[in-house]
Amino acid sequence: MPKSDKQTDIEQALELNTPVKNSYRKWMIVALVLIVLSAVAIKMLFFSNSEETTAKFETVPIKQGDLTIIVTATGKLEPVTQVDIGIEVSGTAAEINADFNDHVQAGQVLAKLDPRLFDARVKQSQGALDQAKAKLIDAEATIAEKKQVLDFLQQARQMSGGKLPAKQELVTAEANLKRAIAQAGMINGMIKQAEGQLKLDETNLIKSSIKTPITGIVLDRQIEKGQTVAASLQTPIMFTVAENLTEMELHVDVDEADVGKIKLEQSASFSVDAYADKTFPAKISQIRYAPQTVGGVVTYETVLLVNNADSLLRPGMTATADMTVSEAKNVLLVPNTALRFNPTQDGDAAKKELSFVEKLIPGPPRANKPKKVRENKSLQKPAPQIWVLENNQPKAVVVQVGLTDGEVSEVSAPQLSVDMPVIVDTLGAVK
Predict the structure, then answer these.
(1) Does the 84-112+210-243 domain belong in CATH 2.40.50.100?
(2) Where are the alpha helices (DSSP H) in 59-166?
(3) What pTM does this model have?
(4) Is 248 in contact with 80 (CB distance < 8 Å)?
């Protein structure tokens, strides 16, 4: 396309079409390229060789030992059999025959209420029963009399051919006999009622004496001589007796996250504040299904059987129990931080430092993988591994993880050995 006069005038004014100007511009471009290439070469030679950095790692040796997994819970000691002895009648305490820590036998009288009121009620009921029985005898005699009169009238009427006595007399005699029989039946009912009242009063007299149903030791006494006992609304507790303190139970609350780990007959141990330097053996005897929710935390009551032959333990003591879930003997152990360590994801120090050339020249574009492929890759759980130092360089070792107590874990792999250094952290970089 031919240039306009205006464009030609501009080029002539700027001297852009002169041969000297074009030659000078080419030499400037060549010089600039040489300077850039020289800077790149110096950077690669000087910084790559003279200031090459290496990472510094914190390591711990692999240990060999035993690993025990435990579940910890707290609770209180209780007797295997404990009876709260109350009273069902009201009265005034007249005798107290047992005190704290007394050893008692089954059937022994622990206390008595004033018996005079109960004796009087028994005598009153006995008198009412005697009266009812006497009335029954009178009613039976009346029945016999009325029956004899009716039989006489019926015989006379038969002998007179139905003329004597009058029919009305026979009807009256029959009615009198029925009334006598009904009176006897009512008196029989009165007798049964009097017998029941007498039995009730005799039972109350017996219950006025508080007896222990089991042989054991008195743990608690809540009655004093002269105290008035009122049993109208509920049964007041007078004594608490434990059958046998040589065997006790430890009731602990196990968290819902741990209840699936414990089993019946598993061994356990516990300690109490009274003997801080001593541990006591126990065994799981019961895991109850009923949940208990306190403060939003769900727990399940678990019962541990305890041998208390030396009588050191007492009911109500607070204990902390360690229930052994599983054990591993002579296994390789590493800290859990070693299983979480990954030098390619360990903060800024683990990020790859780009060279000067890489900063100038962009890398190839990332391929856009299908979304489904990326999702499937994210769902794949990587195999557990630890990192060891080999020629001062981290090397990944795939391991099989066994038991763990939250701090250390059991690991196994053919290339692992005792005291082999395992990387747990990155300390930084050194030149």
Answers:
(1) yes
(2) 116-159
(3) 0.62
(4) yes
